[in-house]
Amino acid sequence: MTGTGLHIAVVDNRPFFETALRHGLQRAILTSARMETLGIEAAKGIVQIADAFGSKYLRPELELARKRIVNLVSLYLRDASEGDVDVAARMIRDNTFLTLSRGGSGLLKALFAMPEFPMFGEVAKGKVEDFLDAWSLKEDYDAYLKALAYRRQNQEELDAAVWFAGYLGLGAADLKEEHIEAASVVRTALLLIAFGDNETELQNQVDFARMAESVRMLSAAKRLQALEQIDLSEVPEQWLPVAERVRAEIIAQDVPVFADKKQSLDRLVFTLKDRYFLRDIEIEDTSAYDALVSKEWTRITQGKTDVDSLMTLFLCIAAGVTPKTELPVKNAKALVKQFREQGFAHEKAVTWIRQHAPHEKQEGLLEDWQIFVEEAENYMMDEWDDTYTGALRFLAMHCHIQQNR
Fold first, then answer.
1. Is 66 buried (19+), middle (13-18) or exposed (0-12) by CB count in 10 A?
2. DSSP 167
3. I need a surface site. Which of 23, 128, 319, 380 has the fewest CB within 10 A?
């Protein structure tokens, strides 16, 4: 079939140990005496591995042990020889079978020791025995290389984060106390370098909101320029790829969010804050944050945060009247009468909360309002209460109602 352009690829699915063994025999690298010794060593190794992972007395366990030991030896030979069968055959000649299998086991233990996730703090890792149990049955060398590359990248991110933490005034010990993603530390440092100054801090959501507000006020060209011109000359060479990768992520994923002026500052912070490292998760002065990111909320609530004031406000919104955090009795009575005549449109308040309340508070506010509504309907919509006595008593207990003097 010459000239047809067809090519037949020969795929060798045998374990690398077997390939190297055949090569060694064909090239006379391995003698018959070495093969005989190898058989004795392999038999002992199979029994030891069967005993370690199960039972040396059961045939199925011995069969699995044979597969495990061949995989371990293959892994070590392929890694150490870089896939050169001639080098691998000489390794079989010069080392005991136990040494070769231990070499494969050592590679897997080293893989296990590397970080599975690029996270600081306590991370559940499992047992090395379980890891060896699973991986010693894998025959795919590419899967090992992929896992190795991934875990090396995780370690690089962790090491780079420790270095970049200096820009945030933090040390390695500070990071180990936090359960945070390494990339978030690098991302925060790069944002600070690009858009901050010597006085800028990124300690909490208020700081982040101020930074976000200043970034979104820049032109698209200046935002991009600030990020592209970050000076990375002092970054150690081994961590430059991490810095470049994180910078590219900021430009591709975060800049479009910063640039979207259609969404509120509160929504922007809510969308991006988990990608950055903010040490003070709980905001001590929530009113300062609300005033910064939710101007409509602050204007309407006038800084009131207690439940009674907010329920009064939501009641007014449901009725479609001017929102207030306190009502005279006559106004409260008029609202009850309106609800009985036109219906209690409590979903209007739900819509308003979702549009204007700070995202950090929305879930709690919606829950409080739902509880209020379920109970309020029993009183406000009670037609038997024709003097509104029960309804007003309920509102006086759960809202701010100015009593007649």
1. middle
2. G
3. 128
Q: Give dist(CA 8, CA 11) in Å, integer.
A: 9
Instruction: Let me know: does 79 contact 105? Beta carbons within 8 Å.
Output: no
H or E stretch covering 402 = strand 401-402
**CB distance 56 to 50 below 8 Å:** yes
Please provide residue 119's backbone torsions phi and psi, each rounded to the nearest 5 degrees. -125, 145
Reported as a single tens digit per residue, the pLDDT across 292-313 is 667 777 788 887 889 999 999 9
Q: Is 239 helix (H, G, I), strand (E, B) or coil?
A: helix
Of 194, 198, 210, which Cα lies nearest the Cα of 250? 194
Decide: 174 and 254 in contact? Cβ < 8 Å: no
In angstroms, rounded to a whole number, what is the distance separating the alpha carbons of residues 90 and 339? 91
Contacts 24+ apart (CB under 8 A), 28-36: 29/86, 29/89, 29/90, 29/93, 30/89, 30/92, 30/93, 34/92, 34/93
- The whole-angstrom separation of Cα 336 and Cα 396 is 13
